[in-house]
Amino acid sequence: MSTTSTTNGTDGKAWRNWAGNVTSQSRRSVSPASVDELSAAVRGAAEDGLTAKAVGTGHSFTAAAATGGVLIRPDRLAAIREIDREGGTITVEAGVPLHQLNAALAAEGLSLTNMGDIMEQTVAGATSTGTHGTGRDSGSISAQIKGLELVLADGSVLTCSERENADVFAAARLGLGALGVISAITFAVEPLFLLTAREEPMAFDRVMAEFDQLTTENEHFEFYWFPHTDSCNTKRNNRSQGPRAPLSPVKGWIDDELLSNGLFQAVCALGRAAPGTIPGIAKVSSRALSARTYTDIAYKVFTSPRRVRFVEMEYAVPREAAVGAIRELKAMVEASDLRISFPVEVRIAPADDITLSTASGRDSAYIAVHMYRGSRYQEYFTAAEKIMTAHQGRPHWGKVHTRDAEYFSSVYPRFGEFTALRDRLDPQRLFANDYLRRVLGA
Asked: Rounded CA gap, 122 and 427, in Å?
């Protein structure tokens, strides 16, 4: 057996994701602290006839990172290598968490253009599964990548960008861990900017009637619909010249910790124990929503603490299909015996040119359904998935879905391009697991 001492190797142990719905038992676990050590770990797995998978913080709800072979933990690959102010880029290693990236950028007066609503994930994990926020003109975190450093199945290190190994770059920005192990990422950045957030309740029918207008007039628009009600909470984030006017510490704690996490946790637990209480609680909760407006640096507006654990399915549908799909989802819930305590989240993204991005080649709307961890989610998710696939929906790669390679080949025009590249870069399937066999084929 090959040595793993240089990569802080340990005997394998059980790995569990954030939601607790996926576990795996690896043969061994390694934590490389350099690209050379990462390459050695990949070569060692191949020599021992084992598969290898990198894992981040486990915020995916699928088994994308699960392995019975060598589990590669990136926590020691956490250096910020270079900030190029003139070129507008930052290069960081794979294990840097988004919250560390945001803090480092802010300290230099810089920012990502857009991001999702949590920042616990590693940069490699977030981009490999297509983490996104909402944006009229700005796309996912993967769409902000300018360069990648990738350790291939033979242990060699490949760098790629729009000008260097462009075919790999087109795919590896959202590579599902199928093409290699990311060791470093270069992101495009811009000068730090302020966002003014305007959050307010709005009736469901009004949101549907004005959806196109709301998405056109605002740089970042999203809304939450509360099942069993006709109420939504809308969020409009737009750039501001300032001055900075953040939420007061007390107001922020009440809204984001006490209500959105503490009280919501209690409500979800009650709903799981007594599902019949959910519709009544939802009506009371939705009426309790109040409007708020504040201005802060971008990442503090984009992100919120998410401490209530859940399981999630999210589909990207063509933007023009959004209103119809959302109305069908609402009608399905109302005609069923389902009891849903979590709101449905709707966001948007512009088309991009990443091979397997959920927004590849088309302006998209994201529709996400959630269930409290430990609840039976299968009936709800199955019904929602039926609606989304009827609209040529593409499931988020890191969230619960039942689609397979045959389906993906029908909704991704460049699917064959990705699988052909995988055949070239990893012909022996060193980076394979059950999830990739299902979604990409054997």
From this structure: 27
